[in-house]
Write a structure and sequence with these properties.
CATH class of the largest domain: Mainly Alpha
Number of helices: 8
Mean pLDDT: 86
Helix content: 55-70%
Number of domains: 2
Low-confidence stretches: 1-13
Largest sheet: 2 strands, antiparallel
Distance between the termini: 69 Å
Number of strands: 2
Structural class: mainly alpha
CATH topology of the largest domain: Four Helix Bundle (Hemerythrin (Met), subunit A)
Order of helices and strands: HHEEHHHHHH
CATH superfamily of the largest domain: GntR ligand-binding domain-like
Length: 221
Amino acid sequence: MAKTQQTPGLDTLERPRTLKESALASLRAAITVGVFAPGERLGVSRTVVRECIRHLESERLVSVIPNAGPSVAVLEASEVREIYEIRALLESAAIRSCARQATPETVAALKRHCQAIADALADGDVIAALGHTRRFYETIFVTGNKRVSWDLVERLNGQISRLRVLTLGSAGRATSGPANLRRIVAAIGRGDPDAAARACRDHIAAASRIALAQLEHIPIF
């Protein structure tokens, strides 16, 4: 029986995005980096855009007010504090677990992600930096066998990314952020769960202080 020939490299090709996926990614990125300001209304004339708006509402990036239509969700200080509290709990636990189980290959991958984040920020490519940051944390959660926790973080990722962009507005954060991540990786590499978790909490505490300070200067429509 003749073997079925497979097109070389076919298994490496990514599935093309649908129109909805492309529109959703574009809208999410626009809200995340501040193209649309908090409280700004969003047009919903096309069906695909309306579907995206509903999806972004589930991510708490968009608010839909009766008789007023959708607008970019306003960042409330109480909600921001809670997000950072959740991050501190989930991420420090995942990092502690990762430090106990990480292989040299894991540490090497985390170092590559850190460098990619730093390079993207140096180039002013915030979206690329956010993508590398997501992969950095995914590596930590998966290595630490914290997949349920990662699912919870993913649900908050839109808001977390928006806050990351907000903190980058603070002087020096584009360099101090990657430096903090490198300290986490160094502790993981030493197999020191306590130091890794402590570095994580310090990193998140600093981000929380910056975000709350920056919130005071955000105009609301």
